[in-house]
Amino acid sequence: MTTGKLFILSAPSGAGKTTLLKRVMADLPGLAFSVSHTTRLPRAGEVDGVDYHFITRDQFEAMREHGTFLEWAEVHGNLYGTSRPAVLAQLATGVDVILDIDVQGAAILRKSATIPAASLFISPPSLRELERRLRGRGTDSEETILLRLKNAKIEMEAALDYEYLIVNDRLEQAIDTLRAVVIAERSRGHRLPTGQAIEILGEL
Ligand code: ADP
Ligand code: 5GP
Asked: Class of the 6-188 domain?
């Protein structure tokens, strides 16, 4: 039996999901990040096993054949997947697990619905601002930026399929909203804002 809850987060690349997550995870205990597997090459500063498990296409395909992935998708020309055993092991420890996955992966999980999940979409305030952020981040080539902007328009169409939509315009406000959603979802599950079960219920 699992005790933690899944939080599915999607956003067009550059919307600020990583920035928001880092801040909220630093504030709220009991949240764990699911480290995906990908065939994408590491960006400067990315660490294997922390940001992603960086693997080859052959390795990815072998894992996929073995049914290792809870969901997987091809995004911007690379393969990405969520390890089922890793997520189940994290949930079993009682922590809530954050999946940073694209709109295709979120749709797969929504259909299978085997694990309780809350879904959140993070949107930039505009496509112009998204472009500014992608360029400002300085981690991607011009070709990659153009591909990500093109895909952003398609990804934005899926925003209404999510339970929560957070517009990351003013950073501090978006952080507050994301934190509030996690706390509210924990309350729905009869748990404290910090994630533990409410003790008095066990005493009744
Ligand atoms: P993602 O993980 O969604 O691809 P990042 O978190 O890497 O996006 O953010 C992309 C860039 O935008 C980063 O340089 C980040 O500092 C910047 N950024 C994030 N949120 C905001 C915001 N609310 N206002 C301005 N810049 C932001
Ligand atoms: P990036 O290359 O910028 O880190 O991520 C590109 C896209 O892949 C983002 O939309 C991110 O959410 C998505 N992604 C990362 N890991 C996974 C995963 O395990 N599954 C799916 N479906 N998408 C993922």
From this structure: alpha beta
CA distance 200 to 109: 33
Residues 91, 97: Cα–Cα separation, whole Å: 7
CB burial readout 145-165, b (16+ within 10 A) else e = beebbebbeebbebbeebebe
- Give the per-residue pLDDT at 138: 85
* Helical ranges in 2-102 per DSSP H: 17-27, 57-65, 84-92
Name residues contacting ligand 2 (CB within 6 A): 10, 13, 36, 40, 71-73, 75-76, 80-82, 100-102, 104-105
Q: Which residue has the CA at smallest separation from atom 4 of ligand 2? A: 13
Structure tokens at 137: 């981040």
Per-domain residue ranges of the chain: 6-188
Q: Which amino acid is at 96?
A: D
What is the pTM (predicted TM-score) of this model? 0.93
Q: Tell me the best of 43, 100, 137, 140 to mutate to test the pocket of ligand 1, counting ligand atoms within 8 Å of each CB and taking the most.
A: 137
Kindly state if the Cβ of 123 falls inside 6 Å of ligand 1: no
Model confidence pLDDT, tens digit, residues 149-188: 999 999 999 999 999 999 999 999 999 999 999 999 999 9
